[in-house]
């Protein structure tokens, strides 16, 4: 069973063609590993701070940020209604021809076109996030959490903060 996925708001993608990226020297198709999938079960433009512990995370940071949670996906309260209403499409990708791009982020890339193996419709995104082992938290603003997570020993992914409400 493949562990690579692509999440999209488009449900009619029969083939993924490589596209230019600011993060690679050549056009690629992106995929995400199952372990980081909760980071992407949100509307594309939704700002978020996601984090989890690894072997380098201090006990104090585990207690302060995670408590009993394994993975946290924090969003702005202003996005909750849209998150609840949005449907996404989860494309299962074949392992080949992908290569690991960033192990921490769970990013894989292919320089070749990729035909997905399967497509599923995701409804109820908060429940989908929980089903993948993460806790969704809503805050009035993400900036203080972002700054604290950056200064912590946690593993994190901070996505689309350009769309966050101002400090």
TrEMBL record:
<protein>
    <submittedName>
        <fullName>Uncharacterized protein</fullName>
    </submittedName>
</protein>
<dbReference type="Pfam" id="PF21820">
    <property type="entry name" value="DUF6886"/>
</dbReference>
<dbReference type="InterPro" id="IPR049253">
    <property type="entry name" value="DUF6886"/>
</dbReference>
């Amino acid at each position: 069973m493949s562990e690579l996925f692509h999440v999209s708001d488009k449900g009619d993608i029969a083939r993924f063609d490589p596209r230019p990226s600011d993060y690679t020297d050549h056009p690629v198709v992106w995929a995400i590993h199952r372990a980081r999938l909760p980071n992407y079960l949100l509307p594309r433009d939704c700002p978020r701070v996601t984090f989890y512990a690894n072997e380098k995370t201090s006990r104090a940071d585990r207690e302060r940020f995670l408590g009993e949670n394994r993975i946290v996906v924090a969003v702005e309260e202003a996005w909750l209604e849209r998150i609840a209403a949005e449907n996404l499409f989860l494309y299962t990708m074949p392992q080949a021809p992908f290569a690991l791009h960033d192990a921490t982020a769970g990013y894989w890339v292919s320089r070749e076109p990729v035909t997905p193996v399967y497509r599923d419709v995701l409804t109820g995104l908060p429940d989908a996030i929980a089903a993948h082992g993460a806790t969704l938290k809503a805050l009035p603003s993400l900036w203080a959490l972002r700054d604290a997570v950056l200064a912590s020993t946690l593993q994190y992914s901070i996505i689309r903060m350009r769309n966050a409400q101002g400090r």
